[in-house]
Amino acid sequence: MSKIHVTELVLRDGHQSLIATRMRTQDMLPICGKLDDIGFWSLEAWGGATFDACVRFLKEDPWERLRSLRKALPNTPINMLLRGQNLLGYRHYSDDVVHAFVKQAADTGVDVFRIFDAMNDIRNLQTAIEAVKAAKKHAIGTLAFTTSPVHDVAYFVNMAKQLEAFGCDSIGVKDMAGLLTPSMAAELTKGLKAAVSVPVHMHSHATSGLASMVLLKSVENGVDIIDTCNSSFSEGASHPTTESLVAALKGTEYDTGLDLGKLQEITAYFKEVRKKYWQFESEFTGVDTRVLVNQVPGGMISNLSNQLKEQGALSRMDEVLAEIPRVRQDLGYPPLVTPTSQIVGTQAVLNVLTGARYKSITNEVKNYLLGQYGKAPAAVNAEVRKQAVGEAEVITCRPADLLPPEMARLQSEAERFANNEQDVLTYAMFPDIGQTFLQERNAGSLQPEPLLSKEAVSQQTAGARYAPTEFNITLHGETYHIQLTGSGHAGEERRPFYVKLDGISEEVFVETLNEMEVSGGSSSGGKKKAVATASSGRPRPSHAGCVTTAMPGTIVTVKVNVGDKVQAGDGVLVIEAMKMENEIQASKAGTVVAIHVAKGDSVTPDETLIEIQPD
């Protein structure tokens, strides 16, 4: 057979898996010349969560990133991960939006589109494949690998045949959670090679510790292209190490032909770059065989830990990991990959944090149970479906068949802040944060989240008198248990502190008003006085008609007005938390007498958001 080809993942899946997708374009460009000189089959550098992270956190234009990378990598195909009819957002888009997005991506620099659907519903892949072929680019029809009572080799082989019939140039296996075993990989590879005539790719995360063996067995059984990551961002929740696989295959009939010395020059560069992002390092970067049960994919685990940390609930990660497979079973065993990984993961977090399974159900879970993401691989839990959507009709057609063309509407909505079609597509992917990003860009006021200096933080704490992080305070005869879970940056005029008050996550701001002498002989001789003020001033819940949220988030929609009559279970608010929307419902029938929030407000648990006077 011919040599094995390699797709390098360091510019996308590596840092998505290990530092929550935070690598900035300015840290990619200086090494692109050496990456381009290696001879990779492709470099995965766009798509996945990178688009979201650019807009949400890094305040970079993702299209400009792609243009810059295309210019810096003239000899190497750029590969992107595309979620079929979801594109890079968290919902299905109309066919005209899919065609427009793929054309813009292809024109700007993407050569290879790795196209998958979280449900493995091939109806959700067909339009994206057609768009890629129309742009004369390479389409990888991708199988989202998972295990369940309904997922076996025959299932995936049948899917691969259909994707080849759609015109895919190659077939990819996307083992996002590292569930493949070496023997399973050998059997699957042989089955695929016997069934299709196009090349086959193998992509397997290293979370379970099996991925290097999986790639080797895949190679021995006929796979054509393997996905690996430079050692600076490899292993654990990421991927097998590029240098190690190159060395393992060197001198064999499968020799990649890549230069190990040149690869190690790239490694040295990225090892230094990674140090800048220490604050985003996941605590779940090593081998974790629990993934063989919970199936949490590599790109999800670091983001899930980061999100739980923001909720002040990182200590409950084990409970969430135990709940995820239960939710997955309830939903008919979808593969856990964006967006279903977020849908299942966020619902599992809600089930844990609210103390009752499905007490609060996200809008995405409701839409999933209505068939709006596609056909579930297996039967869903009928009781959960009834609790979520009642007797509402479940669609059986391709979800996008129900969507009218959207581009004209999106262009009209974005006319005030979009300069071109790419801006319109950014808005389409993430309407709220996309609009804010574009408006701030146009105003020249974009501010990326800060990168903290480890040395500066160490110097600030050196020689300091340490304050307690957990304590009780007594105020007006009431005793409260306070636990400090995190803080903003020292030196800010109003510094945020994240605390738990009697177990409820809160955010408070400490604002310096004037100075007072600190007793005890401070080495700095400083004078400080700080006053803590509630972040919102909203009242605490005091009766059954007070509407609250289970976790911190942002108000997306206020669905009622003062004076409205509501019934118990009616939706009164929509909140975005952990990238998912959650409808907050009235717990009592009655009349809305006060609304303490508006669209865009940040909210935390144990605040009254809406007051209802019960009947």
Summarize the structure.
By secondary structure, the protein is an alpha/beta fold.
Describe this protein's structure.
It is a single chain. By secondary structure, the protein is of the alpha/beta class. It contains 22 helices and 21 strands. The strands form four sheets. The chain has an eight-stranded parallel beta barrel with strand order 1-2-3-4-5-6-7-8, surrounded by six helices. It has a five-stranded antiparallel beta sheet with strand order 9-10-11-12-13, with no helix packed on it. Strand 6 (170-175), helix 9 (182-195) and strand 7 (200-204) form a beta-alpha-beta unit. It is globular and about 80 Å long. The protein starts with a strand and ends with a strand. The model is unreliable at 514-534 (pLDDT under 50).
List keywords for this structure.
single chain, 615 residues, alpha/beta, 8-stranded parallel β-barrel, 5-stranded antiparallel sheet, 22 helices, globular
Largest sheet: 8 strands, parallel, barrel
Q: Which shape, going by the Cα principal axes?
A: globular
Uncertain stretches of 5 or more adjacent residues: 514-534
Please provide the count of β strands.
21
Structural class: alpha/beta
Our Rg estimate from Cα atoms comes to 25 Å
Q: Strands of the largest sheet, in order across it?
A: 1-2-3-4-5-6-7-8
Please report which band the strand proportion falls in: under 5%, 5-15%, 15-25%, 25-35%, 35-45% or over 45%.
Answer: 15-25%
Note the total helix count: 22
Mean pLDDT: 87
First-residue to last-residue Cα separation: 77 Å
Helix content: 25-40%
